[in-house]
Specification:
Helix content: over 70%
Number of domains: 1
CATH class: Mainly Alpha
Radius of gyration: 23 Å
CATH architecture: Up-down Bundle
Order of helices and strands: HHHHHHHHHHHHHHHHEEHHH
Strand order of the largest sheet: 1-2
Structural class: mainly alpha
Number of helices: 19
CATH topology: Sodium/glucose cotransporter
Shape: globular
Strand content: under 5%
């Protein structure tokens, strides 16, 4: 069989396994809680790898290596910020968010949690949250579709738009069928595959450059000064702060937060956090290694974001391959597909949950049955996929740029509110609404609206003018708006304060029994 034949075989087997998982869970999805939270039954391993795989996306194997390849290892500060943000999220958000969403009428989406937490009968929190989720997830999902189209077009040498359709269809089928539980189990498999691929490939490439004796010299050549950009100029403080600020985004990522909500037992959180920490440390570290080693191993690439793809080709698939093993090369290419799919499916599902639970059921058809809502949700998945596909058809779009914009949007709209809703008793409904709206709008203004005229006569947005990542001002203005508006308006009702105290008083305690999907009583059983 030819090398291409082995690659096709690997991709076909991989796609078959993913779709089969979706079909397996089709009949196990009978309620909205099943479809969007898997009945809160995730174990530590699945929760951890699903959260991290859905987080990293094609950005991990294409976007970040491409940035390091183009601009040097000064881009490592993004990875540092993300690693710190990941661990803080698991340590300070996961356990309390899981408990609070159960206590607060068994909320199954982040907007529903906000609404229940503040007894929002006006539905402003659900609607505002859902609007920003739809906007930013359409962009974020499009980044995954762009990565998918780029991968297929590079590997199979087919037109980008045809490749895009193939990738979208595979992701859509298993997400449409199986819902959250299918997505989490596919993410678990994909997370393992991603980790194996990103560790093994650069290690082989380093060895091929000159063997163990040459590693110190090659590492020094590939790993340029982490305080300098690609041209060797020193990084500015604004640049380093902007990269580290990526870590703030974690607190507002709906597709990661729902994994915390879906963990089976509260005591499983510590184990999941440890697993997630190891996975993140290795995957982010070796992602930077891929970009640094790629400069030496596959120099002068026209598209830096294909560096990992080209490394796999040179190691396993070319006629003069370093390790002529095309099936393994095909499987490692599937690792890139895994990174893409593990995020895109989660984004589709969370966006559909907002359309269905927070707009349709919350404001339009409150008496809809669970069966009706599950099928409506599947339609919402299809709608969001089409919207993201239309954005991804613009070939000028790049993965890093799309992810950056969406990441900032979520971190700014929801990050400060998630933290304060879990840790500040004085926070009220108006403060929460001010945080969502001010943070989300700040990102749109900062990144997209030209407000500053330069000496060349052209108008630029604030992000371009200052070089500061929009997540910094977005998160800051959201945080301040929440505090100021909450302090200037009425205190929360007594029942809201009492519920907060019940949740906080259980910190450090173990559950007496496993959480049943029922928490259905809307009670405070943890």
């Amino acid at each position: 069989m030819s090398g291409t034949g082995w690659i096709v075989t690997a991709f076909a087997l991989y796609a078959l396994v993913m779709v089969s998982i979706g079909a397996l869970f089709f009949n196990k999805t009978g309620s909205l809680s099943d479809y969007f939270l898997g009945g809160r039954k995730l174990n530590s391993w699945v929760a951890a790898l699903s959260a991290q795989a859905s987080d990293m996306s094609g950005w991990l194997l294409m976007g970040l290596p491409g940035a390091v390849y183009s601009f040097g290892t000064g881009q490592v500060w993004i990875a540092v910020g993300l690693a710190i943000g990941t661990m803080l999220n698991w340590l300070f958000v996961a356990r309390r968010l899981r408990r609070y969403t159960i206590t607060s009428k068994n909320a199954i989406t982040i907007p529903e949690f906000f609404s229940n937490r503040f007894r929002d009968s006006s539905h402003i929190l659900r609607v505002a949250s859902a609007v920003f989720i739809i906007i930013f997830f359409a962009v974020y999902t499009a980044s995954g579709f762009v990565a998918c189209g780029t991968l297929f077009s590079q590997v199979f040498e087919i037109d980008y738009h045809i490749a895009l359709i193939i990738g979208v269809l595979v992701i859509l089928i298993y997400t449409f069928l199986g819902g959250f539980y299918a997505v989490c189990w596919t993410d678990f498999i994909q997370g393992m595959l991603m980790l194996v691929a990103i560790v093994i490939v650069p290690v082989i490439a380093l060895a091929a450059i000159g063997g163990p004796a040459a590693l110190p010299r090659n590492l020094q050549a590939g790993f340029r000064n982490i305080f300098a950009d690609g041209s060797g100029s020193p990084l500015t403080g604004v640049s380093i702060i902007s990269q580290l600020a990526w870590g703030l985004g974690y607190f507002g990522m709906p597709h990661i937060l729902v994994r915390f909500m879906a963990i089976k037992r509260e005591r499983d959180v510590n184990g999941a956090a440890a697993i997630a920490g190891v996975w993140v440390f290795l995957s982010l570290g070796f992602s930077v290694v891929v970009g640094a080693v790629g400069v030496l191993f596959v120099p002068d690439l026209a598209d830096a974001e294909t560096v990992f793809i080209q490394m796999i080709h040179k190691i396993f698939l070319q006629e003069d391959a370093v390790v002529p093993f095309p099936l393994l090369g095909g499987l490692f290419l599937c690792g890139i597909l895994a990174a893409i799919m593990s995020t895109a499916d989660s984004q589709l599902l969370v966006t559909a949950s907002s359309i269905t639970g927070d707009i349709y059921k919350g404001s339009i058809n409150r008496k809809a049955s669970d069966k009706h809502l599950v099928w409506f949700s599947r339609g919402a998945v299809l709608f969001v996929a089409i919207l993201a596909y239309l954005i991804a058809t613009d070939r000028a779009s790049n993965i890093m740029g799309l992810v950056s914009n969406a990441w900032s949007g979520f971190g700014s709209a929801f990050g400060a509110l998630v933290l304060l809703s879990l840790y500040w008793k004085r926070l009220n409904r108006l403060g929460a609404a001010a945080g969502i709206i001010s943070g989300g709008l700040m990102v749109i203004v900062w990144d997209y609206i030209p407000l500053v005229q330069m000496q060349d006569g052209l108008w630029y947005n604030l992000g371009t003018r200052t070089g500061l990542y929009s997540l910094v001002p977005g998160f800051t203005i959201s945080f301040l708006s929440i505090i100021v508006v909450s302090l200037l308006t009425k205190k929360p009702r007594r029942d809201i304060l009492e519920e907060f105290e019940r949740v906080v008083s259980c910190d450090g305690e173990e559950e007496e029994a496993e959480t049943e999907t029922g928490s259905a009583h809307g009670g405070s059983r943890f």
